[in-house]
Design a protein that fits this description.
Elements lengths: L6 H18 L4 H12 L10 H10 L3 H25 L6
Helix pairs in contact: 1-2, 2-4
Length: 94
């Protein structure tokens, strides 16, 4: 497999390894699983694999870089941070 993957492909490719790594360092199984799912859910807004954002930029006739900057700042960084907070136990997972 090559190139950016969708969330299903991402979890299939690295989910098991990520889960094993997180649980090996002491993360409980449920938060480890939840953190991996949260991190994988951001795939559609992650450059360079965000085809919908490229298409939307083309339709709006704007520079894709101007689209990615706010997406990274307001979506990807908080999503990554939420996954970290879940993994360290700061956010409760039922």
């Amino acid at each position: 497999m090559a190139g950016p993957l969708n969330s299903t492909g991402t979890v299939a490719a690295v989910g098991g390894v990520g889960y094993a790594a997180l649980t090996a360092v002491g993360v409980a199984p449920a938060p480890a699983y939840a953190a991996i799912i949260v991190w994988a859910a951001s795939e559609s807004a992650s450059p360079p694999g965000a085809a919908p954002l490229y298409v939307a930029s083309g339709i709006a006739e704007c520079n894709p870089v101007k689209t990615f900057k706010p997406v990274v700042l307001y979506y990807l960084v908080p999503t990554f941070a939420l996954g970290v907070l879940i993994a360290v136990g700061a956010v409760w997972v039922p």
